[in-house]
Amino acid sequence: MSLASPVPAPARTTTWRPLLRAVLPAISLFLVLGAIGWLNPRAISYLGFNLMLNLAVPLVLVTIGQMFVITVNDLDLSLGFFVSFIGCVTATWLVQAPLLGTAVIIGAVVVYGLIGALIHLRNLPSIVVTLGMSFFWQGAAILLLPTPGGKAPDWLHTVMTIKTPYVPMPIVAAVVIAALVHCGLKRTAYGAILRGAGGNAAAIRRAGWSLLKIKIVAFMLAGMFGVLSGLALTGLSTAGDANIGNGYTLLSIAGVILGGGEFVGGRVSPVGAVIGALTLSLASSSLLSFMHVPPDWQVGANGAILIVILAARALIAKREA
Questions:
Q1: Can you say whether residue 73 is alpha, beta or left, with left for phi > 0 and alpha for psi between -120 and 50 degrees?
Q2: What is the number of other CB atoms lying within 10 angstroms of the CB of residue 6?
Q3: CA 78, CA 74: separation in Å to the nearest integer?
Q4: What is d(CA 30, CA 44) in angstroms, rounded to the nearest whole number?
Q5: What count of other Cβ atoms lies within 10 Å of the Cβ of residue 196?
Q6: Cα separation of 100 and 227, whole Å?
């Protein structure tokens, strides 16, 4: 009778590394929360989370939008400027002429789909195309609202300032967004097609799926979440500003990468992206302020946090290899 050979030691020792890489976004979030609680224990409360995460929902939405673009191996450098444009439309036309404002917003999402089609048909670098579109969106926002002003629709401000019992509204919204997008991208057949187009476009084409249609859908989804982000941001700020969302472009990219996403291969995580956005929101709005980091240094400090997380992921990936 022969005895079964034992499992080699390397196989056992490497099983924890993929799990560690998957939970790394959550670990980073809890580390930031722990640091905030240590610096200011009163912040870990219902009111404290409401204040710290006041602007987290727009960042979560724009990060999800960027995630769809990264899913198909592209990058959108215009998304933050698009959010500013939507905010200006919301604070002006959506109040003064609701039908016109709604038509412009729908048209903007269609334009996003056309951008995806142009990138695919002409085989253009998405970075170049979206960088050009960033000037278009910013110019349109400035023409529409040269100085901060306008007024958010009353219904939008009411929705964005809802007080949920027990758990702050930003956390509830983040959980709902993460669950819905996770189910759509990870639990549906077309979600698998979107991720497959980023991982192996040739195989998706051979299976009979249109890569042009996939690219259009991915960019239109990014535009839809950009619209939701602009609406949420205007509802919270109660006014429009042509520059209010400009910083969201890099923050959205950082949120996706911090949440476990990668620039190639269709490797993204909706839950991780939401966690990454919450981590960046807490780090920039609270942690760095409690540490008395000057505002001019806070952008660099956010970059340092991202570098540390990426370094940890690279170390785990190297050990797996």
A1: left
A2: 8
A3: 12
A4: 12
A5: 18
A6: 15
| DSSP reduced 3-state for 81 | helix
CB 274, CB 23: distance < 8 Å? no
In angstroms, the Cα distances linking 99 to 95, 138, 246 are 9, 23, 26
Q: DSSP code of 40? A: -
62-95 per-position pLDDT tens digit: 999 999 999 999 999 999 999 999 999 999 999 9
Range of weakest confidence among 28-42, 116-130, 304-318: 304-318
Structure tokens belonging to residue 246: 């400009």
Residue type, 260: G
The predicted model scores a pTM of 0.91
The DSSP call for residue 284 is I
Burial class (CB in 10 A: 0-12, 13-18, 19+), 203: exposed
Residue 149's SS3 state is strand
Beta-carbon neighbour count of residue 5 at 10 Å? 6
